[in-house]
Structure formats: C-alpha cells, structure tokens
Amino acid sequence: DNAGTSFAAKIADLPADPARRARELLTLGSEAREIAAALAEFHIKTQAGTPLSDAAKKARIDHLINKIRRLQEEGAVSAEDSKRILDAFQERVVPEYKAVSLPRTSALGDANPANLIVRDGKFIAIDVSSVLDSLSESGKRWTGATGIHDAGRFIEGLEHFGSGLRPQELMAVRAAFVERYLQKTGLRAEDA
Are the CB atoms for 60 and 149 separated by under 8 Å? Predict the structure, then answer.
C-alpha cells in the first residue's frame, strides 16, 4: 500500500526461516532506531522551557492507576495481578517519576508500533487524532503528557504487538529503540 507497513505488522510477519528472520530482525532494529530518532526530534522541537509540573505528574499517575483498575474491572487482569502491579507501581515507579525533571513537550499520545511506519527511510505516524498538545500556555489543552510517554508507549506496545518476537529478539529491538531515543534526547536512562 502507499502508506507502508506498520512496525507491528512487520513483527507479525517475521519469517520462520533463520537466515531470513535474522535479516528482518536487523531491519527491525534499524527501524526502531529511526522511530526513536524521529520521536526524539519531534519532542525536542516541541519542547517548552519549563518542566512537567507536580500537578501534571499527579494527573498522569492517576490516569495510569485508573487504567489498571479498569483492566481489572473488565476482567483483563485478575484482582491479584492488579494489586501486585499497583503496589509495584506505587513503590518503585511513582517516587522516581515524581523526582525526575521532565521537559514539557507535545506527544503523539498513542505511539504504539501499530501506529508507526518507516518507509523509504522516512518516519510516518498514523492515528494522529490523539496528538497531545502539552504546550498550551493557557493550560486548557495541556494534558500533562510529555515526550517520554510516547517512548514508553512504544516500548509497552512492543510487549503487546511483539508476540512474534522471541524474548531475546524483543530485548534487542527494545534496546535499539531506547539507546537511540536517549542518545537523541540527551536524557539519561535513570531519568527516563
């Protein structure tokens, strides 16, 4: 098709033949780096001079907690798993997230592998109806999202859409993305 094939579809279409699979995995790693670089460039170009506020961080934390609770209510996650996830989130993720200074940026909002394409060396984002404008001075349109949420959504999406990847392949693709994103944004791993 004219738009190209999504990153998720390329994962799903990985061949079983070891030699072809190895070549396709090299391409996936390269495209993961291209996606990371393009997202980083977008985030840098839309960066504001002020960091994400404590109130915005709290709103984002509350959103994620509610999302986990909805998954339990819908039966997608057991009560035990929900409690374990929420406890770990509250103990480890929340304190670090509150402590780090993140720049305010615009964010795609749903930067999962099904919505991202690399074609002819160019990055294409589809489903941009959820682009989050986090730079509004009035605060009316500002969602509290920041570029790091796009990076996190892509990594999370690899877990979801990456069922065609073996564990070591998933780790390699994830590492390629994270390394390039951190390199391009200047963030440190401990800050992201």
Answer: yes
